[in-house]
UniProtKB/TrEMBL annotation:
Pfam families according to UniProt: AhpC-TSA_2
Compartment list: Cytoplasm
Signal peptide stretch: none
Domain of life: Eukaryota
Lineage, highest ranks first: Eukaryota, Cryptophyceae, Pyrenomonadales, Geminigeraceae, Guillardia
Annotated CDD domains: PRX_like2 (cd02970)
Protein name stated in the entry: Peroxiredoxin-like 2A
InterPro entries from the UniProt entry: PXL2A/B/C, Thioredoxin-like_sf
Swiss-Prot/TrEMBL keywords: Cytoplasm, Redox-active center
A GO cellular-component term linked to this record: cytoplasm
Protein family membership: Belongs to the peroxiredoxin-like PRXL2 family. PRXL2A subfamily.
Length: 192
């Protein structure tokens, strides 16, 4: 489950209008599922957004927030309208990526991702999976970084689960849904 390597303490994000939000408030009062969105036009990211958005009724029933953090504004209108049902924040400097991905730098997948695609590897399989679902996208924006999903409990519970992408389209809802749901179910509400 959780590696406990990341923390939401001291991280910042912004609203579309530029208001700075302290990310440590995201899990309050009852927890949060946080999605670092690689690129809002990416069909692989859109697939994951749809899957996570499908959890929203269950999350809402428990007061757990569904939060997306994107590294750019590009494509946010279509993404919000068609793919994402949670709150949406931005980290234009990608400073959230550094501590959450755990290695002090923004993770990228440029060479290996392209190589994997050309050779029919993981990325090509992920794109075929998304294509078979009819999810389309575009190539606009930053396309080299990786993202992930975190489940964060309120207060001292901290990070309960993290899924860091290893390649483009390494969707938590495809590869690790059971652990994701266990983590969500393990969040202790402040009244428990």
């Amino acid at each position: 489950m959780a590696h406990k390597t990341a923390s939401f303490q001291a991280l910042k994000a912004t609203t579309l209008d530029g208001k700075v939000i302290d990310a440590s408030t995201f899990p309050n009062p009852a927890g949060a599922v946080v999605f670092l969105i690689r690129r809002m036009g990416c069909p692989l990211c859109r697939e994951e957004a749809l899957s996570l958005s499908g959890l929203k009724p269950k999350l809402d029933a428990r007061g757990i927030r569904l939060i997306g953090i994107a590294g750019e504004h590009l494509g946010h209108e279509e993404f919000r309208k068609d793919f994402w049902k949670g709150e949406l924040y931005f980290d234009l400097g990608k400073k959230t990526w550094y501590p959450l991905m755990g290695d002090g730098k923004t993770p990228t997948n440029t060479f290996m991702g392209i190589f994997s695609y050309l050779c029919g590897g993981t990325v090509a399989k992920n794109l075929r999976r998304v294509n078979s679902k009819g999810i389309q996208g575009n190539l606009a924006g930053e396309g080299t970084i990786l993202g992930g999903v975190w489940v964060v409990g309120p207060g001292s519970q901290g990070i309960i689960f993290e899924h860091r992408e290893k390649s483009w389209g390494d969707n938590v809802c495809v590869s690790n849904m059971e652990d994701l749901e266990k983590a969500i179910n393990s969040i202790k509400s402040p009244t428990m």
